[in-house]
Amino acid sequence: MSATTAQEIAAAVRSGERSAVEVVREHLDRVSAREGELHAFNLVLADEAVAAAEDVDRRVAAGEDPGPLAGVPIALKDNLATRGIPTTCSSKILADWRPPYDATVVTRLREAGAVFVGKTNLDEFAMGSSTENSAFGPSRNPHDPSRVPGGSSGGSAVAVAAGFASLALGSDTGGSIRQPAALCGVVGVKPTYGMVSRYGLVAFASSLDQIGPFTTTVADAALVLEVIGGHDPMDSTSIPQAAPALLDGLDRGVEGLRIGIVRELNDEGIDADVAGRVAEAAAALEAAGAIVGEASVPAATLGLSAYYLIAPAEASSNLARYDGIRYGLRVDGPTAGDVFERTRTAGFGAEVKRRIMLGTYALSAGYYDAYYGKALKVRTLILRDFAAAYEQFDLLLSPTSPCEAFKLGDKTADPLQMYMNDVCTIPSNLAGQPSVSVPFGTGDEGLPVGVQLMGPTLGEATMLRAAAVLEATAP
Ligand code: GLN
After folding, report:
1. Any idea what the CATH number is for the domain that residue 85 is in?
2. What's residue 165's pLDDT?
3. Alpha-carbon span 49 to 132, nearest angstrom
4. Which atom of ligand 1 is nearest the CA belonging to 208?
5. To test ligand 1's pocket by mutation, which of 173, 351, 355, 437 has the most ligand atoms within 8 angstroms of CB?
6. Which one of the listed residues 176, 197, 316, 398 is annotated catalytic?
7. Residue 185 is part of which domain span?
8. Is the pLDDT of residue 375 over 80?
9. pLDDT score recorded for residue 2
10. pTM of the prediction?
11. Does 450 fall in a domain?
């Protein structure tokens, strides 16, 4: 594997074999070389990163152990609160906001010895699948800069794929970690809902949002989840149990595991080359000893419609706080109503406004039952169908994204076409269950393809074991 895995860096720094400063400079050099072209970051924290690395080196020299991520350069999606450091959500409305606190994941990474290299670009408020909805311009795919990196955590995926950071954090509400991971050829995990604290994650859709890692190896993803996972009293949705042990037993293989290819997520609307990779992934798992069959999750096909009611509904409520009064942008006016209206008109981009309108409509009197209420029923059906599938299978397999990375501008004219990117990733968000995208070869255009493994609630350990097999057998 690449010489820049987080595990390797941390081991070398902890043993004194490499200095954290040297490691971070190597990454910052790559940023200097390609960031102008790729735009992974809203903010590069070069001086802060070097200072943090110096501190790590001092501790090693003093005989201390800085932790399991000692000296590892990490990029943070710019919707994760960083104390005193701009946290913009790639929105004009928060362009100058400096949070007075750190997100729990940021604190945990820092305590594990990590070095933060920057805040990464995203679709505004994490709404999108290409980063083209960023108020600060799109990010570009390092494999072909005329193409999108996916989204909404596109900048984080680019940062890892281009070697700007050893790993990155993103957030995933409907696929925003897994889809860009697939399009950029890196590993991306959406953990079980409640496994990772969301304290300090700017909310998009609170019943769906989860934080997770982008890494170059499955083992690094396991390591990060061990560091950031586990109960946090500051997040009322946090599961009251310790972080899972994921590294131990990661190499146990898939002998005897029952893995189902989800029929409904593997036919219509999926490009043939992508479907072909999924079939090869299934064959690789079978060759490694898994029992592979066809699974059915009938309601999964309804996920997209349900999500695009539930997520905007929650977003319309969460985004009500950007009123020009409490924090962020303010455009003055004669009355409070004018301030709200002018601030929100100037501060939000077109997609965010579209979501707020969709969500407000879906929640309004007279339409609530027909739209929002119905979407919640579909969500229950999806949970039921997954539960039935997991009686027969330990894990489920599907594509991550229906296609390879597309050209910038290709899908911006038609929101529905953009939304279709999420068809395979949304079901596990609605179910609150874990899923991972693992790079598995390339498609017809020579660009990375990711395959998705899904597991039942808190099934991360088994899911990552199978992901490790796919990683080892990937073409
Ligand atoms: N692409 C999806 C959306 O636009 C998912 C975004 C996300 O997971 N944050 O809502």
Report:
1. 3.90.1300.10
2. 98
3. 28
4. 8
5. 173
6. 176
7. 6-228
8. yes
9. 41
10. 0.98
11. no
